[in-house]
Trehalose 6-phosphate phosphatase
Amino acid sequence: MTDPLTVPPVLRGNYAFFFDLDGTLAEIKPHPDQVIIPESIRMALHQLAQQQQGALALISGRSMVELDGLAAPYHFPLAGVHGAERRDIKDQTHIVALPSTLATEVEQWLTAGMATLPGSEIENKGMAFALHYRQAPQHQLAIERLAQDTVARFEGLALQPGKCVVEIKPAGINKGAAITAFMQEAPFRGRLPVFVGDDLTDEAGFDAVNAAGGISVKVGQGNTQAQWRLANVAETHRWVLQLAQQHALTDRREGYESLGRSI
Ligand SMILES: O=P(O)(O)OC[C@H]1O[C@H](O[C@H]2O[C@H](CO)[C@@H](O)[C@H](O)[C@H]2O)[C@H](O)[C@@H](O)[C@@H]1O
């Protein structure tokens, strides 16, 4: 789909919320370590999760360890590394790992390849590797070539392009599959999925949510399969705050009504 898409409604009802992190809940920064989710937004996510009986998960390219740090003190269901890691509502983890010899060989190969590209950076996530060029945009083509050579050389890997990054992840892993897995489990099952994301990795999530008749929301510009659009992270934050308030109001109203009925 192309522009323009409109801002999604403030939803009321039984939803399963899925949020991407970088570029959606957190502003893009020069370095991955500089990112934060503002406290008011973390709290609103927690309220929204409580209002939906826990049916809210973060779906990110980051590792689950990093996601927990960024969401602290709250503890949400998570899909990390584009879905290669998943933690369900019961705290059980589901991990797609690379054979350890393969992971070591890939890391050595990438480290050698990136050594000649000053300013570039490798982020090792265990079963995936992000090749960052935000600080060295002149090396974009060389990094894309290195990533392509890597998936051609080693079996079972796939490319995941992103914002000033090319990632190498286990083949068959994507955010859509992670959302679909959550939707088969309580408390997500039976609810309408809502997924908000900003980047190419989020398109698989939009496809999964569209196929389930849910609500897909793209943050920022660019072609997308999403049905709705929020202009940027600030507008996403406002929408999340409105959602949390709206659901709190609905809960209070229903509380008063049931109190009235029982009197
Ligand atoms: O799926 P997401 O939650 O959007 O995560 C995608 C990747 O985000 C991080 O990298 C990106 O954000 C950085 C901080 O703003 C930025 O410096 C970098 O250029 C972006 O590519 C993270 O480092 C990756 O591991 C995530 O996969």
Notes: The chain has seven helices and twelve strands. The longest strand covers residues 157-162. The CA atoms of residues 7 and 87 lie 30 Å apart. The mean pLDDT is 93.
